[in-house]
Amino acid sequence: MAMLGGYCEGNSSIAQAWVQQGFQPCFFFTLVPAVLLSICLLLGALQYACYARFGRAMEPKYIPRSRLYRGQVLLSLLLALQPFGGLLWQGVGLKRLYGYMVLHACLWALSWGCAMALLQLEHTQVLAHDRTRGHGTVLLLFWALAFAAENLTLVCWRSPLWWWGLEDTNQKVQFGFWLLRYVCTFMLFVLGMKAPGLPHKPYMLLVNEEERDVENSQPLLTDASRTTSTWKDFRRKLRLLLPYLWPKGNHLLQGLVLFCMALMGLERAINVFVPIYYKNIVNELTMGAPWHTLAWTVCSYVGLKFLQGGGAGSTGFVSNLRTFLWVWVQQFTNRQVQVQLFAHLHGLSLRWHLGRRTGEVLRSVDRGTSSINSLLSYIVFSIIPTIADIVIGIVYFTSVFSAWFGLIIFVCMSLYLTLTIFITEWRTKYRRDMNTRDNDAKSRAVDSLLNFETVKYYNVESYEVNRFNEAIIKYQVSEWKVSASLGLLNQTQNLVIGLGLLAGSLVCAYFVTENKLQVGDFVLFGTYIIQLYTPLNWFGTYYRMIQNSFVDMENMFELFHEEQEVKDVVNARDLHLEAGHIEFENVHFSYMDGKEILQDISFSVMPGQTLALVGPSGSGKSTIIRLLFRFYDVRGGCIRIDGQDISQVKQASLRAHIGVVPQDTVLFNDTIANNIRYGRILATDQEVQEAARAADIHDRILSFPDGYNTQVGERGLKLSGGEKQRVAIARTILKGPRIILLDEATSALDTETERHIQASLAKVCTHRTTIVVAHRLSTIVGADQILVLKDGHIVERGRHEELLQKGGVYAGMWLHQQAGDEDESKEHHDEKPQGSKKG
């Protein structure tokens, strides 16, 4: 029969928090479950109310069936039952129970039961407008505090009241129970970051995906990546970020990183010594210390303040030195990310680039590279130092002053961080609504001013002014909510800081009156706490900025994760071009899994011959050009050049032998010379000019004031259509390919310009294998072979005269174009200039 003793063991009291170099077990095991249960009940009740009002039950088919989730439940259940195992051991093995043990078991079991209820709630229900898919703040905080409490027992390492000595069976059993709790709370904390019991995508997205086809849409990012919690899969995101913290291959920058880390550690030490020296100054003044001692202490204090800077090191010498050195690491990181991503984007397929908005891609690149630097700075030099200062403060006050001071700091800091994160998450919706209202107001103003004439035509100025006024009012309502919620956040933080400072100051003042502490200790506590809270004032800002940076970084890494659609096979060889013989054998192709663009296409182009492709729009003419250039891989069949399958050779070697003159020639915003030199980057000025002469544009270039140094403008807009085409032809001549592809190279030009360009193209294509996609049939009458495509099939093939004699599709197209040309010529002939009659 177990004997029931008092509430605490021996002659100890719950008021004795720190005895014999450690926490009093009675005090510790009463406080910890009480704090956990209070947090779970109070904040859990708010979460339950939120789900009761805005939540909905998920359909069973969308609820994840995860073994890791079952592991979460099992670990929680094990932790809830563990104290009763301790009671059983105390009662049966040692024959003695104390009141705090019974209370601890009850409160501990209730707190973990509450946590399991919240876990089940998040597993089966979802908020109607939930944009995150990670666990809620309450559970994450609960698991973090439970794990932190187990770590807090490590400060009692030297206390004989705890189990660390392993001197008898009881201590070994208690150590086993602690080890079980430590492992279980750690695993729950890690699993909580992964959230295995929650869907990987928001619930509404899962429902909508069954009702719409997402295969054909190609947004820059998936909806899941836009709506997934910022903190979900935190470990993976951190793993993506860490390589950029350590500059590989650059030993100088690696040394700078280590030196910056050392400076950050030095800042933490300085933050401890500044209040201590301030305390010493006060004590020496009150005790009448000698002048030289006081002067040395004051000089040391001022020197430390110089190193620390005002407040908490934000403008001190050490901080400024670290910031100055870190710039080089940031620049290296920025350069590495941008260059790698730029190279990766150039390696993606044409299909990917056609399906994306270039501006959106560039914004993701710009924001992503900036976000990596921001995240590194926020996490490494703001968040980690702040948390380190808190931990150091708790350990310092617990070991030097009393456990009560460490407890006050721990509770206040935990409450401060929890409320900051909770309120920041809550007020995000107001910020989002304000941004939406701001965009609406600006859109209305811009739309109205752009349509100024229409507003005047219909005399509705007052209507437009009233609409703009309504938009401004709605924006200001949202702006007030943002300001009010920010004021609530600031006041809540101020209240927590004030209560913590009040509690600590009262305890400190009490110990001073009892002669257990000195007046300087009171000053030290106040100085240290204010110094500790100063960076915490920015914690909400850091939290929000880290959220935004994580989203931007994810967007950029989504680009990195895009797979290259066209890849060189393993051990691909270079294309060895001998004559330029092109073969298409039973080629099939479709852009998406659906309708085939090309079906069973077979033809052969002998070396030096010209093949023309004609047919209505959408028949697959340009697709053949893109397949030969290997912008895409065929779905079936084979394409060969000189007997070599182009899918088995390196893309670079294939494209080095092919020259393309497209319909829409796009020039870089550079000089004419550099645009021509793009055909062969290392070409000399003389070779560039020879290529321009061959394209019949040399004289025209010399007529410009700056000659070959003339800037062509954005996309070559300063040049005419014919001039741009001649620059493109010169570029192709300079490249010197054996195979020429002309994709409707003259269809956008007028008849006279087209005639001159055709003469230049004829010289380029001499003795080269050429494939021409033609719109005007008059430009390909001399082709060695003409293929007529319709709906992805070759419906006719032969020379110009042969196809006319057949009287088929080609003949009909020819007659139609000839009739149109005759009408155009007649209209041009009938036009006469207007003049005045002579009297």
What does this structure look like?
Helix 26 (about 800-805) crosses helix 27. Helices cover about 60% and strands about 10% of the residues. Among the domains are: about 1-210 and about 220-230, no CATH class; about 580-655 and about 740-825, 3-Layer(aba) Sandwich (Rossmann fold), CATH 3.40.50.300; about 665-735, Rossmann fold (3-Layer(aba) Sandwich), CATH 3.40.50.300. Strand 15 (about 785-790) and strand 16 form a beta hairpin. The chain is built from 27 helices and 16 strands. It is elongated. Strands 12-13-14-9-15-16 form a 6-stranded mixed β-sheet, with helices on both faces. Strands 8-7-10-11 form a 4-stranded antiparallel β-sheet, covered by helices on one side. The protein has a two-stranded parallel sheet with strand order 1-5. The longest helix has about 55 residues, at about 460-515. The protein is an alpha/beta fold.
How confident overall, as mean pLDDT?
80
Give the termini distance in whole angstroms.
Answer: 141 Å
Count of alpha and pi helical runs:
27
**Any low-confidence stretches, pLDDT <50, length ≥5?**
203-229, 832-839
Concise description?
With 839 residues, the protein is an alpha/beta fold. Helices cover 62% and strands 8% of the residues. The strands form five sheets. Strands 12-13-14-9-15-16 form a six-stranded mixed sheet, with helices on both faces. Strands 8-7-10-11 form a four-stranded antiparallel sheet, covered by helices on one side. A two-stranded parallel sheet has the order 1-5.
